[in-house]
Amino acid sequence: MNSSDIETKVRNIFLQMSFSHTMPADSSLINLGILDSMSILELIDRLEQDFFISFSEDEFSIENFESIKVITSLLQKKLSSPVL
Question: Which site among 12, 41, 50, 64 is 20 to 30 Å from 3 CA-CA?
Answer without folding.
Answer: 41
